[in-house]
Fold this protein.
Amino acid sequence: MMITRFKSKIHRATVTEANLNYIGSITIDEDLMDAANMQDGEKVQIVNNNNGERIETYIITGERGSGVICLNGAAARRVAVGDIVIIISYVMMDIEESKNFKPISIMPDANNHLIG
């Protein structure tokens, strides 16, 4: 039997852009992606702390060190620049494997850069 588990998250990132005229997705600084063990094209859930919206989309790699968190396409209507979001990825795994699995959680600073 398989179970869906929380794999990793970027906790309390600040939205830097909202681009309605892009074809969809979320652009994330590659430094944050690496630290959170997230990949280009990976499905994620975005939780907007400011308005309670929950969005599912996929990741596009953003410029390393830029601090970019940009919601694109229709998702851009669900955020405002400056909103605080949580970006969560999940993984399916065998129940036995899940017993020893340790998720990753990172908390960037106010400019979406890694702390420490």
